[in-house]
Amino acid sequence: MNQSNIETLIDAGKKRKADFVEIYEEESRNSSISLRDQKIEQSLAATDYGIGIRLVYGTDVLYAYTSNDDQQHLLSLIHLLADSRGEAANNSGTFALPGDVSKYSFSKNIHDPRKVPPFRRLELLQTADHIARKVSSKIIQVGVSASDIVTNILIANSEGLWVEDLRVRSRFFLSVTAENKGERFVASESPGALKGFEFFEGLAVEDIARKAGERALFMLDAGYIEGKKMPVVMGNGFGGVIFHEACGHPLETEAIRKKSSPFVGKLGESIAQSCLTAYDDGTIEEQYGSLKVDDEGMPTQKTLLIENGILKAYLADRIGSMETGSPRTASGRRESYQYAPVSRMRNTYIEAGKDSLDEMFASVDFGLYAKRMGGGSVNPATGEFNFAVEEGYVIRNGKISEPVRGATLIGKGHEILPKISMVGKDLELAAGTCGASSGSIPVTVGQPSLKVDEILVGGR
Amino acid sequence: MDLEQAAGFVLEEGKRYGIDSFDLIATDSEDIGIEVFKGRIVSTETSRSRGVGIRVLNNSRPGYSYSERFSKEALSQMVRDAMDQTEITDPLDMELPGPKQLAEVDLKHYNPALEKLDFAWMRELGLALDHASWESDKRVENVPHVGVGKSSSQSLIANSKGVFVKKESNVAYLGTGLVVAEGDTKKMGSYYRSGRDISQFDPSYIAKEAAHRGTELLGAKPLPSGVYTIVLGNRISPQIFGMFSSPYFADAVQKGSSRLVGKLGNEVASPILSIYCEAHTPDYPGSRLVDAEGIPTTARTKVLENGILRSYLYNLESAKKDNVLPTGHGVRSYSGRAGTSFSNMIVPFGTKTKEELLSSDSHCIFVTKLEGGAGCSAVSGEISIGIQGIYYKNGKPEHAVDRITMNTNYFDLLHKIQGISNEYSDSYSSIKVPDILISEIHVAG
């Protein structure tokens, strides 16, 4: 949209007495190619396009979106929203943007995937398939895909903001299925980054495929752990999903403003042991959850959430900040124009500590080493969480023992935090996708290895 | 361009480019809704989203693309994009269908009266539900979720062989999610009504049901680890059966992602269990007369009958591979590739009441809530999941339970089904499963 059209839309919202008007325009070019059953089963290149209009009255949010950029249609949406509140029009002035544009684009290192022909990704997929199948004849299926998305966004608002951002993200996904006498196990890997085609050029595909194949094979023969409460040592990297779900979501002002979090009113209070410090940082270069500006146009930042066990901050978007009094942390995020932004995490991690993995094992007589986590979920209102362990081992007399499958960790986030007693030195970050009220967004989770003194492990 | 014009233009473009064979899916939907919090309408949303997606088969090589812009330039670019993809894909042995006579059934997916529902109706109902939620029980501590809205959509399936089928549907919803507290314990109860009969949208009833779902779990405590008889309540049995629908899809079987490979005609479940796919039941959300690839559906596909696996579900590609006729279970959105799906997954009623199931063992856990699905895998059949519910002793409720997990394998669970009730949950869902009694389940607490 041109400046004149945007000014007309913002003006229309102001005339309907909105305190704040925001226009969000987005065009994405996405492509993906997938291989399964040793065949290229899908190759796709497509365009998403749409406009989101947000009117804010106090802290009440009115949101409309459409993929039709006809100006009269967009004006009709503004009037439809205002009508829903019964807001009459006034004739106050004409809105004009100041003309200052913040324009972010690719860095010079980006290899624009739109200029890369699809066959360049073929070799990558076939290599992954070949290496994973080579691990064993018990590997019966390999699914692998490479996808990227280039998104051009424009955000303008009634405070005079005009921001344009060009973003590119790439993701690789591999799943390997092993089978033995009817039993099956699936191991998967899914690295991603805020990078263009150079992400695939630098990816250690052979290593990723071999490790996934070996894990699928190894875990195929694993037994089950006896379910009960026990100490758990959690592996680094994607293990951070447990902090993301169980503690990160309840720290978003989207939960805080509705008093729907166990951390309401706990700022400045001790919520964990002094060994634990955690951040949500949108500025880490090339990480999957990084952003130059959030989806409300604010430059991102590194936010200290917990410092030595003390709760320091919530993650706030515009509305969450207004309702809770917490400063905005550039955490307003949305999957696309089809969602109004709300406070969401970016790259969330627990800072490295001083303990070694061996020291953690040595402190456990009987417990679980949850080396790799699968997915998980949480109910922010009650803090109840549920996580799957993809690769686990029994810890017996301070040493790693037999592998176990099918373990689940359940508990409440605010109750588990104080039970984290050891924090390792081996911080690692991993890409993920987070689903919540403003859609599915790219994030990074991370942590060093951790020891939790007691948690319920589901098993047999 | 409207939906039909866009589809017509794409069909012409396909011919102009000389594409052998192609089909398209197009949708145009409108949604409006509000969210209420503490007597205020805190969020109002209106949306219009539309898109058209094409699948071309160029010398049998598939290529996909879609566009959310309905301009001639964008749609023409979409066709060229799809053609470009066919340069790298592997050939697909598949033929698109021609037009066929569809069953003459009114699926009741469209109620013109819903089109008159406006923001004023939503505001009145949403505020009433918010108020009723706070008043529903003295232990209600918070009501973070109250929503009301409606959506309507048009969808269109067409192909180069002359299939051109359009469908119109709409639906409304009203629901609440509230937090109840007693001592240090907090539980959430949620209840949503959706459908086209808005006389069922009674705020008082909805609030009371949500409160009941929360309060029945107050005072919950764990049980000792052990092997228990459980009853999956009919609110959550559809969740379990829904998570494990893909093993019945022929493409999953063909590609090594199903443990049901080679099991046609074999007993894979308790003889009291049947699973049907029903596509013509009026007012069920998954009902459809034609699938997403233009194949007419049939009223009932017997997938599992009295424990015997009778049929996989096929789309065009998987049917050709097994040299059988497609069963009308192709599914596709405009932005995705073709897959397979149940229309409505139906487990027929058993002969007992829920109370009889709960009395069938001296110790029994009635499961009413699942905590996430991350510990469940449709490929391996693994089920390792947190559960909540009520512990029954000699057929009487003893106390609520939480902080326990259920650990089993879906394919083992099917054999352990001992009883099926005669009641479905009243949710507007394409998966209908009654209460299910299962013996010998590992529970950790």
UniProtKB/TrEMBL annotation, chain A:
Residues 228-459 form the Metalloprotease TldD/E C-terminal domain. GO terms for molecular function: metallopeptidase activity. Signal peptide: none annotated. The keyword NADP does not apply. GO terms for biological process: proteolysis. It holds the Pfam family PmbA_TldD_2nd. Residues 112-217 form the Metalloprotease TldD/E central domain. Belongs to the peptidase U62 family. This is TldD/PmbA family protein.
TrEMBL record, chain B:
Residues 23-84 form the Metalloprotease TldD/E N-terminal domain. Coiled coil: none annotated. InterPro entries: Metalloprtase-TldD/E_C, Metalloprtase-TldD/E_cen_dom, Metalloprtase-TldD/E_N, PmbA, TldD/PmbA_N, TldD/PmbA_sf. One of its GO terms (cellular component) is cytosol. It holds the Pfam family PmbA_TldD_2nd. Transmembrane segments: none annotated. GO terms for molecular function: metallopeptidase activity. Residues 225-445 form the Metalloprotease TldD/E C-terminal domain. GO terms for biological process: proteolysis. PANTHER family: METALLOPROTEASE PMBA. This is TldD/PmbA family protein. It comes from Leptospira dzoumogneensis.
